[in-house]
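Justification of computing resources. Each target in the renewal requires a structure prediction run like the one illustrated here; the chain below, 278 residues long, is used simply to show the kind of job we budget for.
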Amino acid sequence: MLAELHCHSIYSTGSTIKAEGFNTLKEIMAHAKKLGIGILALTDHDTIRGHRDAKKYAKKYGIIFIPGEEVTSEKGHILALGIQERIKPGLSVIETIEKIHDQGGIAIAAHPYDFRRKGIGDSAKYCDAIEVFNAINVDRTANLRANKLAELYHKPKTAGSDAHWLPMMGHGLTEIRCTNVDGCLKEIKNGRTKLRTKYLEMSILTEWAIRRLKYSYYYLLNYMDINYRWPKRVIAKRLIKLVNHSPGHIDYIFRGLAYLFLGGIMTYSIFRNIILRR
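Resulting structure tokens:
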């Protein structure tokens, strides 16, 4: 059965750009059914507010729902799967894992070497499993390094779409043979998984970024007024206004910036994850 083990809903928010997840639990479960996904873990950032709706709609669409949370530990993100109560952020990696285990759940290191989104790095070796493929890690080197760590410490492997929007679902799937939540967690912990992976298209990532800026528009303007000095404040506010012209001819500029950003990310990631590691 195909599992989406890293998925976000409208309950996920960011610190600076507030909008993160775009879809309701009903929309997510219906889309999972359409994609042939039979297992879905809800892993919103530091909250379990969506669990009740997720359970209700999972039952409606015949999907095994794994209650989860993407916990922001002191060092970075850890997926807590199979929990019933919220794990508070800010604890050490070990404390976070212990809290997850206390609830009978398992800890998966999310994108451990993705420097943009707070991975826990080498501390992933303390988790029950390692997310060796994250569909947003388009630089690829972060995933390769995570896989190498899993091989080194003989850790079970999982994949994650890290989906924050319906078009992002189904890119990082984990194949598991199970019929209930406990069985799924046991199979993951014992390493009986197969991965089905595909990197996200730049068009999806670009559209997601534009939507995030649009949905967070007035919050960002206020944030810039408070935290940015002139001339940075003036330049930033003029640039953010460009999103109001999308969709349109301005999208060509956004696509160009996306590929320019990707080139920079890939260069830095190779330098950080390969050259500096030697």
